[in-house]
Each structure stands twice: as C-alpha cells, then as structure tokens.
Design a protein that fits this description.
The protein is α/β, with parallel strands linked by helices. The protein has a single domain (4-138), classed as Rossmann fold (3-Layer(aba) Sandwich), CATH 3.40.50.1010. Helix content is 58%, strand content 14%. The protein contains 7 helices and 5 strands. Strand 4 (119-122), helix 7 and strand 5 form a beta-alpha-beta unit. The two termini are 24 Å apart.
C-alpha cells in the first residue's frame, strides 16, 4: 500500500534552506523517501516556493544563483502538484472561514489533505496550532 502525504511550501523551504532545524527536515524527507511515500501539494506550492526563494534573493539571504539552485532542489522532490477541483475550492473556502483568515493559501493544503484522506505536514507552527486536527503535523 502506497502512503501519500501533503506537504506545504514552508516545509519544503525549511528542508532546502540552511537553518537551525534543517537536519530534522532532511531526516523526515529521507525517511519518507526510503519508505516510498508519495508527496502531494496543491499547484500553488510551486508559486509559493518560487516567490519565497525570490524573496530570499531580494533581501540578500541568497544570491540569485543560490535562489535558482534552491528552486531546482524543490522541483527534484517530485511533489505531485494537484490543480484544485471545485470540491477542493469549496473545502478551502470553508477552512479559511473556520480559521478566520483573510487569505486561503494554507486552506488549499488542508483541503487537499482532507480530500486525499491523508496527513498534512507543514513548517508553519501557527497554522498547525490553529487547525488542531490529528492529521495536521508540524515538524
């Protein structure tokens, strides 16, 4: 039986960019790869990561070359991008309302995980604390 998980852009960002907890993200990703876990994300994942790496370049955290390398590493993760269908759009809208948020970006990850009936992993502790569901995980 294949295991699937939903990962958000913050998880991938913390996995790729050096940081105090990067080794934990690498260990988790290595575990998933060794166990044949399939990773999924809504299509906005690639937009969010492209924006995040460009922001890191803009604020001189990374050079332009490092930003492109980081983006290439993200693409090598082989996260399967899913274009939200009507059901997921409605679920994302509902999650956004439940969480009392103005923006729905995070809600699309929740909607996809709910649709796939699988675990969701995020690098955003605030989001994990707000959702308080057993299938939502913060590393």
């Amino acid at each position: 039986m294949t295991i699937s998980l939903v990962v958000d852009a913050s998880f991938a960002y913390k996995l790729i960019l050096p940081g105090e907890r990067q080794s934990e993200y690498i260990a988790k990703m290595t575990e998933w790869m060794q166990n044949g876990v399939e990773l999924y994300a809504p299509s906005l994942w690639v937009f969010e990561l492209t924006s995040a790496f460009n922001k890191a370049v803009h604020f001189k955290v990374l050079t332009a070359e490092q930003g492109m390398e980081a983006l290439q590493l993200a693409l090598l993760l082989q996260v399967q991008l899913v274009t939200p269908d009507e059901q997921q759009v409605h679920l994302a809208y509902e999650w956004t309302r439940k969480l009392n948020r103005a923006a729905a970006y995070d809600s699309f990850y929740l909607a996809l995980a709910e649709t796939l009936q699988t675990q969701f992993w995020t690098g955003d502790k605030r989001l994990c604390n707000a959702v308080t569901q057993p299938w939502v995980n913060f590393l």
